[in-house]
Design the sequence.
């Protein structure tokens, strides 16, 4: 367990209280006093403001004590809604979540670069999931596919993001004032201050585009841009109701490999908000040259596109699994992973090799941050997640530096394919209802 520090009353106190109610609720005011070290009047004032703002509500339940019964507090799930859009190489995924992290709507459409692959996203590369229950409690959450323009023009890309946001929020019947904001997440590196991607792999049309300012002006809402790995980390922390006492980490695998760490309830960002690039740690001495300039990087050997490349080089394997040269790597990897699970020895050997290398990255991440909780998230874990989780658990049990002091809990995301989009929504909500732990949310015009 991470050491707990008492927080002085100040700007961060609201974030602290929201985080404790989120992860521990229902919880009483007295329990908040004991957990934080803040005074009873301070807790009462903060809770009163949170109730007035609609972020927290009393459940109606009470705990009997010798004195006055204690009212229990929980996060109001309908206080605000966050919207996250994940920018993938061939698809855009939009997810809307409520304040407690529950998914209320989802849509998947072909992305601006999908015309590069015949027929757009292949089945398995962007499989839809259920939409959940909408804000009216009538099952208005939905899943959609298709639609949108398939153009590489950056203007069309921005318009497609704006149209997707409008389509999903209006389809769910959300009032504009109920939406805390929009987060657009994708492969890094990102320029968080400017609000855009620098050089997203496989998405050159998005590089240098001021997404945050442009979208905020079109939609009249706060917009932020962040990396998919950072978003997935916050999303898993938020929706799992993980305690801020945990030292929490996430390994994210899509076309590349990234990671994130949450310390004392806040994502560790680094000086430019590009921390956690575990995929660019060298694992093979004098290995293949990586676009980052390094040699032998983890994602050059363990990421789906690298595994698919080696699979296509195995005589007869691609033909036997009906993987064509034109198939997107994400779809081809799902086919390969499924074959590995069903006993294909050649496919299993390739996936096992990837899992072994990823586990080495997990050991490095755990040793650097002394993690006690690690979640694997991202489309790369949708089919063969069980193989990766088992290998990571095995390697940590053998090699984690602190294995004699504490164990490390390793889990698979409950929704690995949508983890980044869900995380984008969580970033927005954290910055809105718990300012001080999340990114600053300001409307841009």
Sequence:
């Amino acid at each position: 367990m991470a050491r707990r520090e008492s927080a002085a009353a100040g700007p961060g106190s609201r974030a602290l209280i929201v985080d404790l109610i989120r992860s521990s609720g229902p919880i009483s005011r007295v329990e908040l006093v004991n957990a934080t070290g803040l005074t009873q009047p301070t807790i009462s004032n903060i809770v009163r403001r949170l109730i007035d703002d609609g972020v927290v509500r009393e459940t109606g339940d009470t705990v009997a004590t010798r004195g006055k019964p204690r009212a229990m507090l929980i996060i109001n799930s309908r206080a605000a809604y966050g919207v996250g859009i994940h920018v993938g190489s061939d698809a855009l995924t939009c997810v809307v979540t409520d304040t407690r992290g529950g998914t209320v709507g989802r849509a998947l459409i072909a992305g601006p670069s999908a015309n590069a692959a015949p027929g757009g996203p292949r089945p398995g590369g962007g499989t839809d999931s259920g939409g959940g229950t909408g804000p009216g409690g009538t099952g208005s959450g939905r899943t959609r596919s298709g639609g949108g323009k398939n153009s590489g023009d950056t203007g069309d890309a921005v318009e497609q993001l704006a149209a997707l946001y409008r389509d999903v929020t209006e389809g769910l019947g959300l009032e504009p004032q109920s939406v805390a904001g929009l987060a657009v997440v994708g492969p890094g590196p990102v320029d968080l201050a400017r609000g855009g991607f620098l050089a997203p792999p496989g998405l050159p049309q998005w590089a240098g585009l001021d997404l945050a300012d442009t979208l905020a002006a079109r939609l009249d809402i706060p917009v932020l841009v962040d990396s998919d790995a950072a978003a997935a980390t916050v999303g898993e922390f938020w929706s799992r109701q993980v305690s801020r006492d945990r030292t929490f980490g996430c390994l994210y695998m899509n076309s590349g490999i990234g990671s994130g760490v949450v310390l004392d309830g806040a994502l560790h960002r680094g000086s430019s908000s590009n921390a956690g690039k575990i995929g660019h740690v060298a694992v093979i001495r004098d290995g293949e040259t990586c676009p980052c300039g390094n040699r032998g990087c983890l994602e050059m050997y363990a990421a789906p596109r690298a595994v698919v490349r080696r699979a296509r080089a195995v005589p007869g394997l691609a033909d036997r699994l009906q993987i064509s040269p034109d198939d997107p790597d994400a779809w081809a990897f799902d086919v390969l992973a499924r074959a590995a699970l069903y006993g294909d020895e050649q496919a299993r050997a390739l996936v096992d090799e990837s899992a072994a290398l990823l586990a080495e990255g997990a050991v490095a991440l755990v040793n650097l941050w002394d993690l006690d909780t690690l979640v694997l998230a991202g489309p790369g874990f949708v089919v063969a997640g069980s193989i990766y989780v088992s290998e990571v658990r095995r390697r940590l049990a053998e090699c984690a530096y602190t294995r004699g002091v504490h164990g490390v809990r390793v889990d698979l995301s409950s929704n690995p394919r949508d983890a980044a989009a869900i995380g984008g929504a969580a970033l927005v909500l954290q910055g809105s209802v718990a300012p001080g732990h999340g990114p600053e949310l300001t409307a841009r015009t």
